[in-house]
Structure formats: structure tokens, C-alpha cells
Amino acid sequence: MLKNILSVFIFLFIISFLFLVINTYISENHKYKVMNNRITITEKIKDNVDKLTILINDTDNVIEFNSGFENTNNKIDRNFWKLFIKND
């Protein structure tokens, strides 16, 4: 008997919680706050973009391209099995 009453209370609590959450999320007040926040953020971004300074381009002739490709293969030939060969 007590278990059934507890089950009903839990069920009612869950249903009421879901109702309150969904009702709050769908409310006009919440929609107004979201839209107001989006508009405010958009205006702040536009204001900050207008305040940005434009930097001059000082990268002329900074990077020199090396057209002569050097193919130097300094790779050391290593082989594990050559370690077992006896040097006479």
C-alpha cells in the first residue's frame, strides 16, 4: 500500500516537473528574452567590428622562395641484421 502511494507521488512529481519545464521553455517571456539577447549580442558585435583598427601590410618581400631544390640524402643506412656480421 505504501509502495503504491509512493509510486503515485513520484509519478505526479515527474509529470509536474516536466510540465513546468516545458511551460517555461515555451512561454512568451522566454522567447522575448532569447530574441532580446540575440539582438543585443549582434549590436555589440557590429559596434566592436567598427572599432577595429586596420593594420598596414608590411609583409612584402619577407619570405624568399628557394627555387633551387637541394636533394641531399643524409639518411643513415641502419640495419639490425648488420650488427651480427663480424668485422674481420
Explain this structure.
The protein has 88 residues and is mostly helical. It contains 2 helices and no strands. It starts with a helix and ends in a 37-residue tail after the last helix. The relative contact order is 0.04. The mean pLDDT is 85.
- pLDDT < 50 stretches: none
Count the DSSP helices: 2
Beta-strand portion reads under 5%
> Which series of helices and strands comes N to C?
HH
Integer average pLDDT: 85
Largest sheet: none
Question: In angstroms, what is the radius of gyration?
Answer: 36 Å
Terminal residue distance: 96 Å
Class based on secondary structure composition and strand pairing = mainly alpha
How many strand elements?
0
Residue share in helix: 55-70%
Described by the principal axes of the CA atoms, the overall outline is flat
Summarize it.
With 88 residues, this protein is mainly α. The chain has helices spanning 2-26, 28-51. The protein is flat.
List its salient traits.
88 residues; mainly alpha; flat
Task: Give the helix/strand layout.
Blueprint: H1 2-26, H2 28-51
